[in-house]
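Support request, please re-run this one:
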Amino acid sequence: MCGIVGLMYADQSRPCARDLIIAMRDTFVYRGPDDAGLYLDGPLGLGHRRLSIIDLGGGHQPMSIENGTLWIVFNGEIYNYRSLREELIRNGHQFRTHSDTEVILHLYAEQGEACVHALNGMFAFAIWDARRRALFLARDRMGVKPLYYAITPEAFLFASEIKAILRTGLLEARCRGEALAEYMLFRQVAGPETLFKGVMSLPPGCTLTFCEGKTQLARYWSPRPSADRPLITYEEARKILTELLQDSVRLRLISDVPVGTFCSGGVDSSLVTALASRIKGDQVNTFSIGFDEPEYDESAFALMVAKQYRTLHHQLTIGNVEFSDLFPQMVWQNDEPLNFANSIQIFALSRLAKQYVTVVLTGEGSDELFAGYPRYRIPAMASFYRRMPNALRNLAKLWGAVAKDHRIMKLDRFASCSPLETLLYNSSMLRPDVVAAIAPRLAESRLDYRWSCLKGTEQLELDDLARVSLLDQECFLVSILNRQDKMSMAASIESRVPFMDYRIVEFANRLPSSYKLRNGSGKAIVKDVARAFLPPETVDRRKSGFGVPLDRWFRSDVGMGERVRQLPDQVDSDLFDRKILRRLVEEHRAGVQDHSEVLWTVLNVQTWKETFHC
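Re-run finished. Output below.
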């Protein structure tokens, strides 16, 4: 796990300055506190910060092949590197190290840009091919590892984090208004464009070649299944998923440094913990976080799993004031506004874990693959709701307003949308009319990338649940994985995600939706796998979502409550309507209505704008 940077001047006679690459590289020392390196070749510069995981003494980067014609900077882990290395040796390749980095180099030397198809792992890397005078960039299939790039009149730049690109001064930090509108709606920006004008994100499953001043983007993999999906029985699917998860966890335990797990008490992280404990055969370090507010505290369930598998369990509690103190730093770490408040929990947990391990396994991604979110039931419910007589719908709306049941109000809103809009806005956090009211001068977002992802599933003969799941995998999940990477790397911790093994993704997306959503319960097949390893209290309890008590903290007089109280006077008046925002703050603090979702979103945008001077 590392941080990578690079720069290629358009003027081939202009040498790349050593100090500039060092400045980019050392913007994120926390991503690689163990080692640092750089390589210069005329107008090209490559930089690397290393967190040593595999081949601690032999993995220095940038790394070259024997004849010096290929150089690589690599961030991530290749889990099948040992088998690939053996095959390459049989083909006549000679290795100087035992690192997975060198395997990528030799694989590229043999297969060229097609090398990415052989890799099972999380990765973002750049290879300088001196023979072609070309840069080749690649990102893993699901986008576990971030990789950004920018093209200016002066240079082509890339980095693991946006702030390293901005550090060069070759690109001004400017906000894309239409992207900000998308963030306000969905709490994330999907697709290749970011919140910063001119800064692009290499999409998951894609490669980019920069040669002679031109870029060529290519997709080598997609999570979308083929139209031909042979049906297997539920029991066969359960057995295959069990085997795939066991192998995925086994591969992700490969390390030359200590490995632990984040065990929140939910079914996904608990299952990963159980499998890791069984495979390792010794005590695994596990980490969980709790709150003083009982309704948000899952620590009892985490402790239940820890006791069953006799792990070395470590737990911390985070409160309002500490959370508030960390908040601005985490916005900076994330490059863009935070999507969910539990991002700060991930950092706090990673900081604790760093005292004991360097690598952790997490349960991220299971919900998007196996229909774990309650909102996945909305398309079917909205279809039923649309067919209800007006009298019954009016009665339901009245009850929702009186009982302050946001689920009924949300259902009524979706029932007023077209079926396609219901799928598109399934992961939205705020309504378009709410965004328009609090930010009336904000440019409207066209959501082109989301529409293209959704329409790309039209020919696959999928039901609504499968289409929403795929849309989330190509949009929502990418932001979840990015924050997992950035929050854990902020504490110099490598975070591995077994559910994101591409074999599991492909298998999950071939399964019928009835294997995922059964009797109104999501992740049915994952829970049936988990029942063989976990106590029923952990498997069958209601999903809590690793939440944070923001609604309560926003009503306090300290910490996040103080930040929200000051918010109406601090926000950019050219963007937000201070009068409306002040009313929302007053209503929330008085307990009249819960506006925590709106306030969290606005607070993040304002903090981001101040942090990056956008």
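DSSP finds 26 helices and 17 strands in the chain. The mean pLDDT is 93.
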